[in-house]
Amino acid sequence: MELSAQLGNEIITRLSSYVETSINLMDSRGVIIASTDHTRVGRLHGGAVNVCETREPQIIHKTDLHKFPNAKTGVNLPVYHRKELAGVVGMTGDPASIMQTAKMTLASVEIVLEQIYLERESFDLERLWLNWLRKVLLSSMENLEDLKKEAEYTLQIDVEKTWQVIISRTLETDFVKYELKNHNIDYLLVLPFENYTIAVLEPSSLHYTIPIGLQKGETAFGNPEFSLKGIIDSYNQAREALEIFPASPSPVYSKHIPAERLLYNINENTYKNVTSLYSKKLFEMDQIYISTLQIFLQENMKINSTSSVLHIHRNTLNYRLDRIQKQVSLNPREFRDAIIYKTILVCANA
Question: Do β-strands 219-221 and 252-253 pair in parallel, antiparallel, or remain unpaired?
């Protein structure tokens, strides 16, 4: 990695608050690309040119200034990154007084250069993963073989395994990574994707237990599925679960809501044709009746358990159900009518 103007300015910004002496950074041709003295940027530094040619430090005294155009007294040292010359760091002042500071600055420049390199490498790798993930989730089935090869040769992963997808609107990517690593759960990737954090993990390493930290609201789990198609299917299941229960205070598991998923995927025209009149009448009622109906259906139409969850007397519950029946003309206690109510509520939430 060579020093560039952008890199040089970033390094100067990081170091200038710690070093009082003037600092220059030159590229591998000897051109000043960043400096605490902005008037010197863009000039060819004679001392740095000599460093680039000889790969040796260049100390410049007052008596040497005529030999090195655009140079001042000071110390110029070669900057190496991964055994390659990246540029030159120069410090202005009496060479004997600033040599120690110059060497410390050189070490700092090389450390910062490596840090920036690793940051960019990590960013580039994440961008590579994100690009591959986007192609997977938005691909047609005909492209899967090409994406498998890209995973194998570019990302060096074997996708012929069982995967499970988690998506969340509330969990940050770094937190999800921490939780998975902390519980020794193997994962393929954890990335920001669209409006979610998405994690693709190996369910076999879950040991039948989801970490408490991941059991948050607005988070959904797809089913374990195989290979690339499995990642797509598990993602779609998790996304669909969040669409059905968008504000759930606890995680939603696709495997626990097969009926809701079935109802959610009813043909839109059929849904409207069957439910529009009932739906209009139901949502004209106060929220307390709608909430009561939701809990009643969630509790499998059982009076006692519904009363317990709502903390109301069973007579109060029966009164509310009677009011709903009278308003909507469907009896929530009858299975055939309850299916229609359930369909309305599932699709309304989504």
Answer: parallel
DSSP state for residue 172 in the 8-state scheme? -
Under DSSP, is residue 22 helix (H, G, I), strand (E, B) or coil?
coil
Residue 232, φ and ψ in degrees, nearest 5: -65, -45
- Closest alpha carbon to 251 in 161, 345, 164, 348: 164
Q: How far apart are CA 237 and CA 190, in angstroms?
A: 17
Long-range contacts, 273-282 (Cβ 8 Å, 24+): 274/340, 274/343, 275/340, 275/343, 275/344, 275/347, 278/328, 278/329, 278/330, 278/340, 278/341, 278/344, 279/344, 279/348, 281/327, 281/328, 281/329, 282/324, 282/327, 282/328, 282/341, 282/344
- Any idea what the CATH number is for the domain that residue 45 is in? 3.30.450.40
Greatest CA separation for the chain: 104
| Cα–Cα distance measured from residue 202 to residue 187, given in angstroms and rounded to the nearest whole number | 6
Domain presence at residue 310:
yes
pLDDT tens-digit readout, 83-125: 899 999 999 999 999 999 899 889 988 888 888 777 777 767 7
How many domains, in total, are found in the chain?
Answer: 3
Q: What is the C-alpha separation between 229 and 16, in angstroms, rounded?
A: 52
Contact present, 31 and 42 (Cβ < 8 Å): yes
Question: What pLDDT does 118 receive?
Answer: 76
Last residue of a domain, one of 256, 287, 302: 256
pLDDT digit string (tens) for 311-324? 999 999 999 999 99
Give me the sheet containing 32-35, strands edge to edge: 32-35, 23-26, 84-92, 74-81, 58-60
Q: Which of 204, 226, 256 is the last residue of a domain?
A: 256
Domain range for 185 is 157-256
Q: Which tokens hold the place of 86?
A: 């990246």
Q: Which of 138, 134, 218, 133 has the alpha carbon at shortest distance from 171?
A: 218
